[in-house]
Amino acid sequence: MNKIITIDGPSASGKTSVAKLVAGRLGVPYISSGLLYRAVALMCLLENASTEEIEGRLGKYRLELRPTPESNHIYLDGRDVTESLHSLEVDSAVSAVAQQPKVRGYVNAVLRRIPGPFVIDGRDMGSTVFPQAEHKFYLTASPEVRAQRRVPERDAAYDTVLSEILRRDEADKEQSAPARDAVLLDTSHLDLDGVVRAVLGHIDR
Ligand code: C5P
Q1: Whole-structure pTM over 0.85, yes or no?
Q2: Does domain 32-115 have CATH number 1.20.81.30?
């Protein structure tokens, strides 16, 4: 099978954990599109470049995504930078970077070169990048629930994390509309296992 399954949703909606577990159950790779946008944000920070300037410098770095069964590793010119991609600095910079049309074209081209099958998470995987995907899901949850889930992953207080989530929802809203044919799942009152079971149930149907 060379199926593509897309799992989109706002930040901290649980899409990454769900996509990893679904991929594991199906025995196919998991791909995070957000990591590529985070890598471009890291390039801006490393170069001290503005979001507009980085558009002209995308060719300067060799950017690679290598999937492992549990996660993805991102290499910039052969250096594994995965550990640096989830800082609050990258969180703050990434939405502006991801709004640049050339950056979106660049990331989408990297993604479309990856051979299926895989489960991929992001914002616009089902709506724009892989409209032909076999199964599409869109996860939502209230901002408060998402902030509670994210606090343990960030060295920051609940209020800081919540305001960062609200800011990013606003900044990302253009590319975050669900695909018209996506299955919408509100995960506010479901645990991880419940969401994974719901997704696998739709795929089996
Ligand atoms: O999924 P994650 O939170 O790691 O994504 C980081 C950022 O990358 C998002 O806030 C968004 O700005 C951008 N992004 C995007 N389109 C995607 C995936 C991520 O614009 N498909």
Answers
A1: yes
A2: no
